[in-house]
Amino acid sequence: MTGIIDTHCHLFFDNLFSDIDAVIERAIAQGVEAFVVPGIDVETSKLAIQLAETYPMVYAAIGIHPNSDIEPTDRVFTQIQQLLPHPKVVAIGEIGLDYYRNKFNSDKQKILLKHQLDIATEYQLPIILHNRNAMDDLFECVQQWQNRISPSQNRKPKGVFHAFSEDLNWAKQVIQMGFFIGVGGVITYPKAHLLRDVVQSIPIDYLLLETDAPFLPPQPFRGKSNEPAYLPIIVNELSTELNIGKDVLIKTTHRNSKILFGLN
Predict the structure, then answer these.
(1) Band of residue 22 on the pLDDT scale cut at 50, 70, 90
(2) What is the tens place of the pLDDT at every residue in 210-254?
(3) Contacts of 151 (CB under 8 A, 6+ apart)
(4) 116/138 Cα distance (integer angstroms)
(5) Contacting residues for 123 by C-beta, under 8 A, at least 6 apart
(6) Nearest to 213 by CA among 61, 29, 56, 6
(7) What is the 3-state secondary structure (H, E, C) of the chain?
């Protein structure tokens, strides 16, 4: 397998960063061609840029994750914006809403999200969205944001719903709104019935491959740290679910990734 793109991996976490050369080498040996590394706060966004400067195949996304304990202040948003002119920054993310752990902070999360959506508009960058138990509110926020986008921007792909976990009805609404759906290790889990229904029912032109490393490892490595070298396991499972060749899946998701992120 060659030409695989990991559109979501957090290579700055210690268990990956401490051995980063080997992590990247193992992934390349498995056919991974490029990596998109989304930050979860200002410091990790800087680390993502540092990785992108060090490794030609790494790209950075800049953002504040909804679980990050950060107040939505002008200073924070200024710090985010100062990182965006870097040539290897390809998206705003990881941003979104998470009510599984922090529902009591929903108002703060929405403020963080809405400001970062507006920053994405200003810099004409796609977004990488996190959702956990918050799809109704997240979709409403994104829909309101989309209504504020100019007609010319509205024609571009908006971003990706990372680690998609909703049903087919939501998936159809997401792709109709101009978003891709990120598929990772969860597709290999025995109980991932909703996700299997989604990937079997929507066009492959809306799918992206991801690991979310070091989280959500595929079934053979559950309970262990995930890494981009495990992407072929996801490719194998997804090609089986879609009943298509692995080469077709890789070629299509490769193209999708380049369309969304503008990778070189």
Answers:
(1) very high
(2) 999 999 999 999 999 999 999 999 999 999 999 999 999 999 999
(3) none
(4) 13
(5) 81, 84, 92
(6) 6
(7) CCCEEECCECCCCHHHHCCHHHHHHHHHHCCEEEEEEECCCHHHHHHHHHHHHHCCCEEEEECCCCCCCCCCCHHHHHHHHHHCCCCCEEEEEEEEEEHHHHHHHHHHHHHHHHHHHHHHHHHCCCEEEEEECCHHHHHHHHHHHHHHCCHHHHCCCCEEECCCCCCHHHHHHHHHCCEEEEECHHHHCCCCHHHHHHHHHCCHHHEEECCCECCCCCHHHCCCCCCHHHHHHHHHHHHHHHCCCHHHHHHHHHHHHHHHHCCC
Whole-model pTM: value is 0.96
Question: Which tokens belong to 212?
Answer: 């979310």
Mean pLDDT, rounded, of the chain: 95
Closest CA to 5 of 171, 233, 251: 251
So what CATH class is 4-261?
alpha beta
Backbone angles phi, psi at 209, to 5 degrees: -95, 145
For the segment 72-129, what is each residue's pLDDT rounded down to a tens digit? Answer: 899 999 999 999 999 999 999 999 999 997 666 899 999 999 999 999 999 999 999 9
Angle between helices 135-148 and 168-176 in degrees, nearest 10: 10
pLDDT in tens, 36-50: 999 999 999 999 999
